[in-house]
């Protein structure tokens, strides 16, 4: 077995055995605490550019199936694991995780002390690292050239519009790195979905006659995407709009709000979130490293809708007059609980009732 090393900018080195493709990469080292859903996590475009540590100790036991992809390929820059199962058992399994990483040209380390690595990340809060093959570390090892958010978003988003599903409600999904299960949730509710590149103009979107608009999840720091704020504000002011994760952060910023980097993010499938209108707590699936600041929200326009029960952070907001809702968590789940599927049903109902911009304008009058 080839040895490999994860070298952190903080000076620590973790040793493991190489799996997947043999290439050295750098990125922010993050961790996800979900017990299952490794395929969905690895193929979620929001992980682009990140070295993903899976804290659950045995990964790969149900293999890789063509049903569990969240995008066309593995998106994380690399993966760090404790034990990997190379003899998966599941009727839909088509290959092992190790084979999948190799085929996607993604490197990884197994047999790493992931408990200690997670403690280290929690201690330093944000940690960059590099996985390398040689134990002799040159001077540059602690310097990281990590792609910026615009490059990451560019890498993962569609280049031309894609239409999926049929139905009596047309949703335009502005793509910053969408997860397929968002589209599946919409199709399940009988929507036609047009996924458009994030560079699409307001007029081009208007010509599609959407009933509603979704601003997708995606990788990187939302502040770096400031060029898109005017489009997002203009769209949200004219169509029923739902923002998911990065989309929520972009809506907050577009309306003058603020975001910041979190200590080590929320990545897992059991994050409790309280709906401040109903008082109900739901378990949610999450994957984010940035957060909207409560005191930065423009309170003339928006009210807080969801709060994280563990740390009190903002998990969602709602416009006071316009049909704009945004959530930091993932209502489409995958992986994770589907308690908050109602976010989609409520949004689609609003979109259907509004019949898009034209009718919405007349309803407002
Ligand atoms: N899943 C997402 O959309 C992540 C949003 C953003 N990149 C963050 O880390 O906070």
From TrEMBL:
The keyword Nucleus does not apply. InterPro entries: Anth_synth/Amidotransfase (IPR050472), CarbamoylP_synth_ssu (IPR006274), CarbamoylP_synth_ssu_N (IPR002474), CarbP_synth_ssu_N_sf (IPR036480), Class_I_gatase-like (IPR029062), CPSase_GATase1 (IPR035686), GATASE (IPR017926). Its EC number is 6.3.5.5. Residues 1-166 are annotated as: CPSase. Coiled coil: none annotated. The keyword Metal-binding does not apply. Residues 2-132 form the Carbamoyl-phosphate synthase small subunit N-terminal domain. Pathway: Pyrimidine metabolism; UMP biosynthesis via de novo pathway; (S)-dihydroorotate from bicarbonate: step 1/3; Amino-acid biosynthesis; L-arginine biosynthesis; carbamoyl phosphate from bicarbonate: step 1/1. L-glutamine binds at residues 46, 218, 220, 246, 249, 287, 289-290. The active site is at residues 245, 330, 332. Keywords: Amino-acid biosynthesis, Arginine biosynthesis, ATP-binding, Glutamine amidotransferase, Ligase, Nucleotide-binding, Pyrimidine biosynthesis. HAMAP family: CPSase_S_chain (MF_01209). Small subunit of the glutamine-dependent carbamoyl phosphate synthetase (CPSase). CPSase catalyzes the formation of carbamoyl phosphate from the ammonia moiety of glutamine, carbonate, and phosphate donated by ATP, constituting the first step of 2 biosynthetic pathways, one leading to arginine and/or urea and the other to pyrimidine nucleotides. The small subunit (glutamine amidotransferase) binds and cleaves glutamine to supply the large subunit with the substrate ammonia. Composed of two chains; the small (or glutamine) chain promotes the hydrolysis of glutamine to ammonia, which is used by the large (or ammonia) chain to synthesize carbamoyl phosphate. Tetramer of heterodimers (alpha,beta)4. Belongs to the CarA family. This is Carbamoyl phosphate synthase small chain. The gene is carA.
């Amino acid at each position: 077995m080839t040895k490999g090393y994860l070298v952190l900018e903080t000076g620590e080195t973790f040793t493991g055995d190489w799996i997947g493709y043999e290439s050295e990469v750098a990125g922010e080292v993050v961790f996800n605490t979900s017990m299952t859903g490794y395929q969905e996590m690895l193929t979620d475009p929001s992980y682009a550019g990140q070295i993903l540590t899976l804290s659950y100790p045995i990964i790969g036991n149900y293999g890789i199936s063509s049903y569990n992809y969240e995008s066309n390929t593995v998106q994380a820059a690399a993966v760090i694991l404790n034990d990997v199962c190379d003899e998966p058992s599941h009727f839909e399994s088509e290959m092992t995780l190790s084979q999948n990483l190799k085929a996607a040209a993604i490197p990884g380390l197994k047999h790493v002390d992931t408990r200690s690595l997670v403690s280290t990340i929690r201690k330093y809060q944000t940690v960059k690292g590099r996985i390398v093959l040689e134990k002799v570390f040159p001077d540059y090892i602690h310097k990281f050239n990590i792609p910026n958010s615009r490059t990451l978003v560019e890498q993962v988003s569609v280049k031309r519009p894609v239409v999926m599903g049929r139905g009596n409600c047309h949703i335009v999904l502005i793509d910053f790195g969408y997860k397929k299960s968002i589209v599946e949730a919409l199709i399940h509710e009988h929507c036609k979905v047009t996924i458009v590149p994030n560079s699409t103009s307001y007029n081009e979107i208007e010509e599609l006659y959407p009933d509603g608009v979704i601003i997708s999840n995606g990788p990187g720091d939302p502040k770096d995407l400031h060029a898109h704020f005017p489009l997002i504000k203009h769209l949200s002011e004219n169509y029923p709009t739902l923002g998911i994760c990065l989309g929520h952060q972009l809506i907050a910023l577009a309306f003058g709000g603020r975001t910041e980097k979190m200590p080590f993010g929320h990545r897992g499938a059991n994050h409790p979130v309280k709906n401040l209108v109903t008082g109900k707590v739901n378990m949610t699936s999450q994957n984010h490293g940035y957060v909207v600041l409560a005191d930065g929200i423009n309170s003339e326009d928006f009210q807080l809708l969801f709060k994280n029960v563990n740390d009190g952070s903002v998990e969602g907001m709602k416009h006071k007059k316009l049909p704009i809702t945004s959530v930091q968590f993932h209502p489409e789940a995958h992986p994770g609980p589907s308690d908050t599927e109602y976010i989609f049903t409520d949004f689609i109902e609003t979109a259907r009732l509004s019949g898009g911009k034209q009718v919405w304008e007349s309803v407002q009058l």
